[in-house]
Design brief:
With 79 residues, this protein is an alpha+beta fold. It is built from two helices and five strands. The chain has helices at residues 7-12, 43-52, and strands spanning 16-24, 30-37, 60-61, 64-65, 68-76.
Length: 79
């Protein structure tokens, strides 16, 4: 799902990057999300919502899928 700009952020001209640390479970689902770099006006929450919709194919170790931690970045730019 695309990341949505909030009306408040758009009106204020806010741009920037939200950085998230995401723990993907061995089944490919998002288990935990920790914001590392925050933006205001609801943009961090929008990035979290988008991260929760990601489909992830876990790596395989010794024939079994394993959990991983990934850093994700969502950049918000006004055009």
């Amino acid at each position: 799902a695309p990341v949505k700009y909030t009306e408040e952020a758009r009106a204020s001209g806010l741009q920037g990057t939200v950085k998230l640390l995401v723990f993907f479970d061995a089944d490919g689902s998002v288990e935990y999300i920790l914001p590392l770099q925050d933006l205001g006006y609801g943009l961090t929450q929008q990035a979290i919502v988008a991260a929760r919709t990601l489909k992830f194919v876990p790596p395989v170790q010794d024939g079994l899928p394993v959990s991983v931690i990934q850093k994700l970045e969502f950049t918000f730019s006004l055009y």
